[in-house]
Amino acid sequence: MTTAPAWPPGPVWVVLPTYDEAANVVPMLQAVAAALDRTGVEGRVLVVDDGSPDGTAALAEGVARADPRVQVLRRVRKEGIGPAYRAGFRRALDAGAALVVEMDCDFSHDPARLPDLIAAAAGADLVLGSRYVPGGGVARWGPVRRAVSRAGCWYARRLLGVGVRDLTGGFKCFRREVLEAIPLDEVTAAGYGFQIEMTYRALVLGFRVVEVPIVFTERVRGRSKMSRRIVLEAGSLVPRLRRRLGPPAAPRTPPEAAAPAADAGGVRAAP
Question: Going from the N-terminus, what domains does the chain have, and what CATH number goes with each?
């Protein structure tokens, strides 16, 4: 008889926001499903599509017909990753998710690292896949992009007064309690500032945040959604977050682990 794993205590939902990802969505769904299979967890994958004109949603629905673990949430228009993730988080919570993972759908986040984030969540409330802790890094980035990314993380850390090394990364695993505690309707960022805001809100509420090293690899198919407007939005958001939410709280007692977080390797707690 097969025994269910002690961790996690319920389903794991992986939320993938998409816009014009026809070249990536099918292989990405296959790779995520394979990674979940290796963990032995009860997994679901939710594609949240912002009205892609290239047929991304239809391709994902084709996968969903063959694999009941896959669901597709169609949205009318492109509103940014913030609103897309909020919609996906609500769907996952309503369905009883114990853990909710967010990641890009272009293979910049390696699905093979999903088991590491899930394992680390046994001893944390929010796990960040981090480029800027020992063992992490980036691939296929030029020097300008590297400098802009590091400068953005340094700027956000200094103004917010937190120890998280990678505040702008988008590969994360939330315990449901974190998403239930954060008032999602009050999360204002639409672009990549959403990543900063969600992590900072978790820290302000006293949740324990840890970073697990990952390598971010620049996409090889499709077009990047990064733009000057998104960078400026994130930069202006940081001081407003500090004024509106106040300083981060002392971390709560670490959640009781049902499996050793050390299984993830290289876990770094954010002070």
Answer: 12-245 (3.90.550.10)
Q: Rounded distance, CA 199 to CA 178, Å?
A: 10
Q: pLDDT for 190-199, tens place per residue?
A: 888 999 999 9
pTM over 0.85: yes
Structure tokens at 186: 């009050």
pLDDT-based confidence at residue 4 (cuts at 50, 70, 90): low
Q: What contacts 227, CB < 8 A, 6 or more positions away?
A: none
What SS3 string covers the chain?
Answer: CCCCCCCCCCCEEEEEEECCCCCCHHHHHHHHHHHHHHHCCCEEEEEEECCCCCCHHHHHHHHHHHCCCEEEEECCCCCCHHHHHHHHHHHHHHCCCCEEEECCCCCCCCHHHHHHHHHHHHHCCEEEEECCCCCCEEECCCHHHHHHHHHHHHHHHHHHCCCCCCCCCCCEEEEHHHHHHCCHHHCCCCCCHHHHHHHHHHHHCCCCEEEEECEEECCCCCCCCCCHHHHHHHHHHHHHHHHHHCCCCCCCCCCCCCCCHHHHCCCEECC
